[in-house]
Design brief:
- The chain is an alpha+beta fold.
- It folds into 2 domains: 178 residues, no CATH class; 90 residues, no CATH class.
- The protein is built from 7 helices and 20 strands.
- The longest helix is centred in the N-terminal third of the chain and has 14 residues.
- The C terminus is likely disordered.
């Protein structure tokens, strides 16, 4: 396996990829291109068409972002593409219109075989209960390793998009499976969030919607501890202050995804009633520290 990462500064990839590397990519059969787009739905389309025209056999998956990373540099409203070339790995793409538990089962059934070592999944980051979706995948393939994540829209919380090849969608999920006898995949875990303040309790919730914390409306809880001005910026600022809890000895942070009219808040995964939680805050030194156990990819072929 060989990977090339590029910052696409205009709509044509040949201005960013040198001819030698482009020729190498074009000469190999199994090519995965991941497109991380901080630009609008309309503005990314020409770039995807250009990629498909120049590397027509490549498998392409796209996600909109809230920040992109290349060479340890974080950007916003840019387009980053990662091109991976394989010699002994077969790639398969799939897309589902929904992003619920059943969609997790369906995409796993379509993609996972006895040879599947890894799934990369991108799904709607605004209207998704990520935990339920993953539960669906694991109910069919309990040992599969999953990478990817939930799409963003530069913190606007209006509309995300995902794509397969040069076709874009504003709902559902897209995924790619890696089938191989030789690919080595290792997942590592890095947390990087610190607890702040005292312990609190989820006192009313259903799935990923939290109605009350410490017997006060979830919105009022954030207003009390973050202040009135901060609450006016929800849910975008809520990404910076997730709720942290322990599950099976592992710290988990739940990011906010929606601020509802009734004072409840939606999060990226479930938060059960009775769960003991803390407000969290990011520590840049911890967020960039080497992972400890479970979530990075290393490949042999």
């Amino acid at each position: 396996m060989k990977t090339f990462n590029y910052n696409i500064t205009n709509k044509h990839i040949n201005t960013c990829i040198n001819s030698k590397e482009l020729k190498y990519i074009q000469e190999h059969d199994e090519v995965l291109i991941q497109v991380f787009s901080g630009v609008s739905y309309m503005n990314i389309q020409d770039t995807l068409n250009d990629i498909k025209q120049k590397i027509p056999h490549a498998k392409i998956i796209t996600t909109s972002t809230d920040g992109e990373i290349i060479n340890n540099i974080v950007s916003v409203e840019k387009v980053i593409i990662s091109i991976s070339v394989f010699r002994k790995t077969k790639l398969s793409l799939a897309r589902k219109e929904n992003n619920d538990y059943e969609a997790g089962i369906a995409i796993a059934k379509e993609l996972v075989s006895e040879k599947t070592k890894l799934l990369i999944i991108f799904l709607d980051g605004i209207n998704t209960n990520g935990e339920r979706f993953l539960d669906g995948i694991y109910s069919y393939a309990p040992d599969i390793i999953i990478a990817g994540g939930m799409s963003g829209d530069n913190g606007n919380f209006v509309k995300c998009y995902m794509g397969i090849d040069n076709t874009l969608f504003t709902n559902g999920c897209v995924g790619v499976a890696f089938d191989s006898n030789d690919l080595i995949v290792q997942n590592l875990y890095s947390f990087g969030w610190d607890k702040i303040g005292i312990e609190h309790t989820i006192t009313k919730s259903k799935d990923n919607c939290v109605y009350e914390i410490d017997n006060m409306k979830a919105l009022d809880f954030y207003r009390k501890y973050l202040g009135k001005e901060s609450v006016s910026s929800l849910p975008s600022i809520g990404m910076e202050f997730p709720l942290i809890y322990q599950q099976d000895g592992i710290a988990i942070a739940r990011a906010m995804t929606a601020n509802n009219h009734d004072g409840s808040l939606n999060f990226a995964g479930n938060l059960a009633e009775g769960t003991k939680i803390y407000l969290g805050i990011g520590d840049i030194s911890n967020l960039t520290f080497a992972p400890k156990s479970k979530q990075i990819l290393s490949c042999a072929s």
